[in-house]
Amino acid sequence: MIYSHSFRMLAQEGHLASTSLLGGFESLNKVNYDQPGTVYSALFQMTIGLERIMKIAWILNFRLRHDLQNPSDAQLRQLGHSVTDLYRALEGISGTYDIGDGWFEPKSLHDDVLAFMAEYAKGSRYYNIDQLVAGRPNPDPLVRWFNLHLRIADDALSHSKREGIMDRARLHCERLGLLGWETGPRGQYDLTIDVTYQLEVTRQTRGHCVWIFIELLRPIYFLIERLVRELHELEQAKGIGNPDVPYMYEFFPFCLGDRQTVVRRKAWTTLFVISGRV
């Protein structure tokens, strides 16, 4: 089969978005707050993957609404890079296709995660260099993400589970004589016992961070699936033999994972291999 230029470009963008998200999931499961590079790596990949998958959905909708034409460079640039704005734009589009479920309300935990990712992509990823050369009073992204992770952990762990972790943290610190204070990942002085507790809580809930993103991605997946099916119907109606749009949703089957599987999954980059010559 001879593939069109648009088909190949969309397929390559699907590979890019999928690989970025899978790499981000795997990196989130390896986050170690004593090694900040692991956090930055996860956030970089997630911001790239989120923006790419959402722009894929936006482009597909544009093609459907404009007789299979692609948007211009100026139209795409006007869309911007904010994943929060993109998410809300897609939520608005989804109503046209009766896909109104699964989107998260403003001020929810999921929305706060999106807002953080938008800010991180816009400027916080340069925080270290900005502090060195300009000293701008921007919040530390590591501190902001750690506090979000603690909120995710509070939702994920039962009260008894958290109490058990605190008991073990207290015994550990008492045994080693670690009864002082230190600057913890929250960017403030905390008791070493509390820092030990926080680090263990976040270590045990790294998979729940992945689940937050899966929940955010799921309505986008269903929107992409619907758009692709309608585009293929339009192509057939026009007598186009070879499809000009790949089955884009097949790049993102992980969006359909259930919570238990997602939370427990550690390896992501080798789980879904989408091959073929395009």
How much is the radius of gyration in Å?
21 Å
Number of DSSP strand runs: 2
Give the fraction of residues assigned to helices: 55-70%
The main pleated sheet reads as: 2 strands, antiparallel
Trace the largest sheet across and list its strands: 1-2
Instruction: Name the helix and strand elements from N-terminus to C-terminus, one letter apiece.
Output: HHHHHHHHEEHHH
Number of domains: 2
Distance between the termini: 9 Å
Which overall shape is indicated by the principal axes computed on the Cα atoms?
Answer: elongated
Question: What are the low-pLDDT stretches, counting only 5+ consecutive residues below 50?
Answer: none
Beta-strand portion reads: under 5%
Class from secondary-structure proportions: mainly alpha
Annotation field: number of helices: 11
Average pLDDT level: 91
Tell me what you see in this structure:
The N and C termini lie close together (9 Å). It is built from eleven helices and two strands. The longest helix has 32 residues, at 206-237. By secondary structure, the protein is an all-alpha fold. The radius of gyration is 21 Å and the shape is elongated. Strands 1-2 form a two-stranded antiparallel sheet. Helix 2 packs across helix 5 (109-122) and helix 2 (36-65) packs parallel to helix 10 (206-237). It has two domains: 5-139 and 207-264; 158-204, no CATH class.
